[in-house]
Amino acid sequence: MASYNHKSIEKKWQKIWEKSEIYRTKDKSKKPKYYQLETFPYPSAAGLHMGHPKGYIAEDIHARFMRMNGKEVLYTMGWDAFGLPTENYAIKVGKSPQEVAKANVKNFKRQVKMFGLSYDWQREINTSESEYYKWTQWIFLELFKSGKAYQKLAKVNWCPKDQTVLANEQIVDGKCERCGAEVVQKEMNQWFFKITDYAERLLSDLKGLDWPEETIKRQEDWVGKSEGAEIEFKINPPLTPSPREGEKETGYGLFRYHTTDPKTWKALQGRVLEMRKQPTDAEEILWQSLRRNLTGFHFRRQHIIGRFIVDFVCFEKSLVVEVDGDIHDFQKGEDEERTKFLKQNGFVVIRFSNAKVLGNVLAVVEEIKKELKSLPFGEGSGGVIKVFTTRPDTLYGATYLVLAPEHKLIQELKPRIKNWGEVENYINSSKKKTELERLKGEKDPTSRKATEGQRKTGIELKGIKAINPATKEEIPVWIADYVLGSYGTGAIMAVPAHDQRDFEFAKKFNLPIRAVIEPITGEERPNEEFRQSVVALVENQKNGKLLSINWGEKLGGNLFVGGGLKDGENPIKCAIREIKEETGYKSLKFISKSEKIHHHYIASSKGGVARNIEAIGLYFKLENEEKTDLKLESDEDGKFKVEWISKKEAQQKVRDELHKYVFEKFILERAYFGRGILANSGNFNGMVSEHAKNKITEFAGGKTKVQYRLRDWSVSRQRYWGVPIPIIYCDKCGVIAVPEKKLPVKLPPLKNYRPKGKPPLAGSEKFMNVKCPKCGGDAERDPETLDTFVDSSWYYLRYADPKNKNEFAKKEKLEYWLPVDLYVIGAEHTTAHLLYARFITKFLHDQGRLNFKEPFLKLRHQGMILGPDGRRMSKRWGNVINPDDVISEYGADTARLYEMFMGPFEQGGPWDNKSIVGIKRFLDRVWGAAHRVEPEEKIHPVRKQEMYHKALKKITEDISAFKFNTAISQLMILMNDLDSEKIYENRFKIFLKLLAPFAPHMTEEIWKGVLNNKTSIHSEIWPKYDVEMLKEKTFELIVQINGKVRDKFEVTKNISQKEAESLTFSREKVKNILGPSQPKKVIFVPNRLINLVV
RNA sequence: GCUGGGGUGGCGAAAUGGCAGACGCGCUAGCCUUAGGAGCUAGUGGGAGAAAUCCCGUGGGAGUUCAACUCUCCCCCCCAGCACCA
Question: Interface pTM (ipTM) of the complex?
Fold first, then answer.
């Protein structure tokens, strides 16, 4: 027998398989389809390391298994080749991204192929090739045409190093996911996809998917649904003009942003009714200059950004403006009046003389830039402050409002704010602070926790008040950066008594705290008894310890002093009396009391009676330890111990919910945010909070609202190596889609693709200058490219029909193959990619292009293989295990088996250079056994058969369940058994088929080369196990005495308890242990064990 | 802080509430070999014992059960994600 030369044998079969196309997938097959997908790799310059192929190997095993089980399997490979790292690397080595990407793909492909993966290479795709990105552009335009892709001026995350915008999902700890540079906020005109329209469906459609729970949870968290109410607080004194009937929705912030969306443009025309046709020279110069210097804007000759009108453009001659439905017509020469009017109505107006523009255009641009930056953000006012709350039931406890520092209203209210200087300072400092804060937290992770309470900052808007719609009280309005401008309405009603953050803020700035929810603790039970009582927390002034009564474990452990009110007694008296009676201490100083607490419990010390009490928590300090004589109630005598416990001990030992609440209230100073019964809430007193939510919302004129954390997906990128945005800007026609016939808009090769604050494509006149598809006039292309997540949000559709030139994929093919049956993906992609792909699928479904709503039915994550040192494999650590080396030394089959054997598939762990030899030995033994095969065995020992069918069952089930490690161990057990005696061909063949998906090369070599079969083992049918064979005739009966195993012996299957007992009692061992005594009880588990309880 | 996942021999790990540690690495002894970082055989959780056998053992503590790695409660530690989301 020749030793197994993996190098030549593996290469040989890889060539033969490729030539004979045995892994070619048919589109029209009678077999049931199975679509397996894996994350298509981003081909980096570094090449593959042994961490990468884990998912591929698992999928390959599964694909081979499915084929052997009669499925037509779609299983293929592609390249997510666009993206920043390639571009950056190209810059570094002085080559073009095209060249670099090509070389990377070539290297990746070579390495991937070494593993003998059974891809259908005919279906290979590459996102950076125009045949592919033509359809990425097409999808963009579909979104654009249906209003789901739009532009808006927005604060975006800007990476100063990579010179591009990042999606929220691409920021890790405030830093760029790719390069690690600190991300800053920048305001730009950006393309967005309206993924928020799908928020609800992105949540509800998760039901029924076979995904890891963890991943579902993350998707849910990212969408972040909360149900609550939107409530309006009137500003006092009222603002003019106040909104008219029916205008509430939009206020007068309707046309806040300049946008290139044609629909919005129309609306703008409705407002500004007439405009100059011909620009002056000065206007032309300024216009050109703005275009060049203000990135992110697409300027038109009439330029309005919100309440900002660039005066030079619009109305040298005359201007007709509509404000709140009234038409105002200004004639030439009425400049003064016109400006005054516009300013009064909240427009920002700057005027420049022609001379100034012609003289120093850049200075003018700078001024405009500055003005643009101060543009307000957030919801419009209409004289009210809108807040979103999940707790409308606490409205009566709202003692102040807080706006986010970037709230639009602040600018609007500017003239009335008496302390504007301070406010402005605060706004500016909070803009910078976020970055600084992050840096600080980075260096000292404990500092955050320690300062959590004090770190809230804010400032009151003096001169501004709001009216609480429930209490009609006038309440102060603050701004603070603990309120986010980007969530909800950018404003909150603060209920310090029932929200921890508001509580901390109120404490710090001495704002009123009003409790309106009386807590309910314990489990609700029928009130068999009803009692007023107290819980007294006594703190020893000397050492800060707390007075506790220890009732012992059975009776509820440590509590504080408590008791019921006697007739005519007030709570404080009652508490003092109880403290004296139970502990003897008498030098008590009353500090404060809690609101009423509704508590339900079972009184174990009184014989298990269900009780419903109303308790008051009282907080005392003990001034000295003098005692009176103890007078105990007779039934409590000796049942408890008086103890002084530290606050930390109290936190751990005090279990009872009521007592715990009192502790948290006084010692930890926590706001109560649970459910309860309303108090101090007018007519709503006595209602439970769940019920009060709707009632109070209605009463306050609010409306119930569902709020999501999900933001729209920002897709504009200011870099080169990506899909060009297929949009044309025409001065006349506005924003125009590139006609479908003209797709793809090809990414041109550039001499200089380095970013300089401007997209590289903007530097190519050849690319930029284009005729307007609508009017034929001069126009410009969009110089930006799409986020690469757009490329990967639909690639799984393309695999169904990768060569199609007329559509992104043919409908019949999509309907045959999709949705994806199994998707294996790294756990790191669980938010962004999956969310985007699901969104695109839903969108195309709504367009009637797809007949399914969810793209991925079953999802599994592979755990990450780390370097031998336990760190992520990286050049930086020098711990990269290179597949070329591993395969050269051990061969692909060994590498495959080992990665699967390392541990559970979803779990990661360090690579171990030693353990891999175990697999090598196993395969060597298989090779050896193959050369000792003898003809069919004549006698089939029953036990052998059973063992075989059991193993068969286990391996089949394990592969289906992605438990490759235990499947392999089962294969090893089989091999050990085979090896210990003669190798019979019939059994060995079955074994070989079971091994084939794992070790495709060696099994093929044995199958064809040694056993002389004509066809490939990979086209064989998966062996079936016989259920009858699994039914063993005997089993080993476990004998337990008091739950401990004392004996075991072989008995026939399905014996009765009686038989089992008599056999058991006749055992020597059992007799020895039992002696003359009889067991009290016998537990018999059929076909398993018998337990004698003595 | 919140959420999710974990904690089992020297190591990677197995175990529908029913024999804890399958399988593999490593280690020990023996065989074979000119040689071994090769192969084969046996052993291998800890402790006691010559042995049969016994006791202890799945992060810690309680509980449910005839029986708990597995279920319930509390605590500790590790990993991942989120992080003032009203």
Answer: 0.93
